[in-house]
Automatic annotation (TrEMBL):
Protein name: alpha-1,2-Mannosidase
Keywords: Calcium, Endoplasmic reticulum, Glycoprotein, Glycosidase, Hydrolase, Membrane, Metal-binding, Signal, Signal-anchor, Transmembrane, Transmembrane helix, Unfolded protein response
Record membrane topology: Single-pass type II membrane protein
A Gene Ontology term for the protein's cellular component: endoplasmic reticulum membrane
Chain segments annotated as transmembrane: none
Active-site residues from the entry: 182, 327, 431, 450
Length: 608
């Protein structure tokens, strides 16, 4: 009889479990139990998924309502690989349309006018037109600037054809007065990047070698740099003149005022050139300029201004910020250290970053916790730290990407979200946005890459599909509002969506490249095992041991002995900060920023 009781008990238990399973969906709805959010595609082994049962709990803590609020529904969950592949191809198509249009309608001139399908060079009739003449030097700028994008996209045949065109047709023996900064980052940087790609024995992007190549691009880079050197002569501070004539040197009527970024963002390109040639001259003058600017910082705040007199060292512009006039100075302090391993560069960057946090940052202390306004970096007086104005500019959108490089991912998430909210409102970033008036102060958008760059780097740091959605929004906006008859055009007004007849070269060298890499997970940049770094113009260079040792015995300014040189292990420790671990694993499956904070930012920019 006992066994019959056991059988009967098991039967009753089975029936009870079946009834419970049938009621579970209804109970889950009534108790607001959330299923685990889907995972956004395959992930590296080092990034494990959230512990069982934690995703639902974290979703509630992260501000999700039952079924998810509008932010959860739009941005969370998997990003289909088929969609990602289509967006990768769309980014490539965007580059191809712009590049082919330039080659057909504008080459060998510097830029493409996409509305009238014609080329543009320096404005010879109006030498004071610095917006054009600072950049265009009559040296096929767009072709040169686009070289490494062709390689990154794997187009070896067009890369080889473009390199041969540059070798055969480009000369810098021109009566053109250009800005030293623009010529360095757009032209010198691209020539060096392409040379490194051609001579790389590993050839990670496919066969990009050039038959009978005899270092012609390196020779062109050397020739250009020699023509820029007069800018560093006859200055009492060592800070270079802002402009130089490629044939005649510094113009006799040259101004003695230059911006911090323009004078202090030459070290990466000049340093690479010096180390490839074994000639310290170029790195020496660039490093001297950086140290001269650094020595002029405020004793009170440690901040730098944005415009300085190169003869007196007097700050003409006392605004300290992260946008135009200052941005890449900070970027190159860190990137010079990453590339060359000089500890003084890292020490300057760390001090600058602390001062930025102490005096420029406003808002609540933590990005994803607490009350108050979201973190924002404002423009202040370099001596007092007092607010100078209520606008930020689009160039500042690079800063979240720089924060990713040092591991401050949490703060990068918040600042990026603010710029993305502005993009969502206008379908572009106005050159200046007044955060107090919730309106553009300067309403044009010249196809700048900074927001795309930070989006790409944040995705690489978090693998959160939110940033793929952001990239998709940006790509669709560019196609909708900026595509023209022969390429892509500057938006003259982000509200009215009127166009301006100009396609700047950085659209091909940066904007298209970062969009493509965002959606191309299998790109050699991510999969080859090589370490790469992007210059401020988006040119790719390998983080190579040969750049971490100089071939000369000269002592560079501030370098006293070899003990000051960082070791590769120190570089890794500095670049892969433990701050990265502040983003918990389970959040990689949810929004990077709590939805209530996203809503707060959207409200601040007038979206809701």
């Amino acid at each position: 009889m006992r066994w019959r009781s056991v059988v009967l008990g098991l039967l009753l238990l089975r029936l009870g479990l079946q009834a419970l399973l049938a009621l579970l969906p209804a109970l889950a709805r009534g108790l607001c139990l959330h299923p685990r959010l889907p995972c956004p595609g395959p992930r590296p082994p080092a990034l494990p998924g959230p512990p069982a049962g934690s995703a639902g709990r974290q979703a509630r803590l992260w501000g999700a309502a039952a079924g998810g609020d509008e932010y959860e529904r739009r941005y969370s969950g998997a990003f289909p690989p088929q969609l990602r592949a289509r967006l990768r191809d769309a980014a490539r198509g965007m580059f191809v349309f712009g590049y082919d249009s330039y080659m057909e309608h504008a080459f060998p001139r510097d830029e493409l006018d996409p509305l009238h399908c014609r080329g543009r060079g320096p404005d010879r009739r109006d030498p004071s037109n610095l917006n054009i003449n600072d950049v265009l030097g009559n040296y096929s700028l767009t072709l040169i600037d686009a070289l490494d994008t062709l390689a990154v996209m794997g187009n070896s045949s067009e890369f080889q054809k473009a390199v041969k065109l540059v070798i055969d047709t480009v000369s810098f023996d021109k009566d053109s007065t250009v800005q030293v900064f623009e010529a360095t980052i757009r032209v010198l940087g691209s020539l060096l990047s392409a040379h490194i790609i051609i001579t790389d024995t590993k050839q990670p992007f496919g066969d990009m070698t050039i038959k009978d190549y005899d270092n012609e691009l390196l020779h062109l880079a050397h020739d250009l740099a020699v023509r820029l050197l007069p800018a560093f002569e006859n200055t009492k501070t060592g800070i270079p003149y802002p402009r130089v004539n490629l044939k005649k040197g510094v113009p006799p009527d040259s101004h003695n005022e230059t911006c911090t970024a323009g004078a202090g963002s030459l070290l990466v390109e000049f340093g690479i050139l010096s180390r490839l040639l074994g000639d310290s001259t170029f790195e020496w003058v660039a490093r001297r300029a950086v140290k001269a600017l650094w020595s002029l910082r405020s004793n009170n705040t440690g901040l730098l201004g944005n415009v300085v007199n190169i003869q007196t060292g007097h700050w003409v512009g006392k605004q300290s910020g992260l946008g135009a006039g200052s941005d890449s100075f900070y970027e190159y302090l860190l990137k010079s250290y990453i590339l060359f391993g000089e500890k003084e560069d890292l020490e300057m960057f760390n001090a600058a970053y602390r001062n930025i946090q102490n005096h420029l940052r406003r808002g609540r202390e933590a990005c994803n916790e607490g009350e108050g306004d979201p973190p924002l970096y404002v423009n202040v007086n370099m001596y007092t730290g007092q607010l100078m104005n209520t606008w930020i500019d689009s160039l500042q959108a690079f800063f979240p990407g720089l924060q990713v490089l040092i591991g401050d991912v949490e703060d990068a998430i918040c600042l990026h979200a603010f710029y993305y909210a502005i993009w969502k409102r206008y379908g572009a970033l106005p050159e200046r946005y007044n955060w107090q008036l919730q309106a553009p102060d300067v309403p044009f958008y010249p196809l700048r890459p900074e927001l795309v760059e930070s989006t790409y780097l944040l995705y690489q740091a978090t693998k959160n599909p939110f940033y793929l959605h952001v990239g998709m929004d940006i790509l669709q906006s560019l196609e909708k509002y900026t595509k023209a008859k022969c390429g892509y055009a500057t938006l003259h007004h982000v509200v009215e969506k009127t166009k301006e007849d100009r396609m700047e070269s950085f659209f091909l060298s940066e904007t298209c490249k970062y969009l493509y890499l965002l959606f191309d997970e299998e790109n050699p940049v991510h999969k080859s095992g090589n370490k790469f770094m992007f210059t401020t113009e988006g040119h790719i260079v390998s983080v190579d041991e040969r750049f971490r040792s100089s071939l000369w015995e000269d002592i560079l300014p501030g370098e006293e002995d070899s003990a000051h040189k960082a070791k590769p292990t120190e570089l890794k420790a500095a670049n892969f900060s433990s701050n990265c671990n502040r983003v918990p694993d389970e959040r990689r499956y949810l929004l990077p920023l709590k939805s209530n904070y996203m809503r707060q930012i959207d409200r601040m920019v007038g979206l809701i």
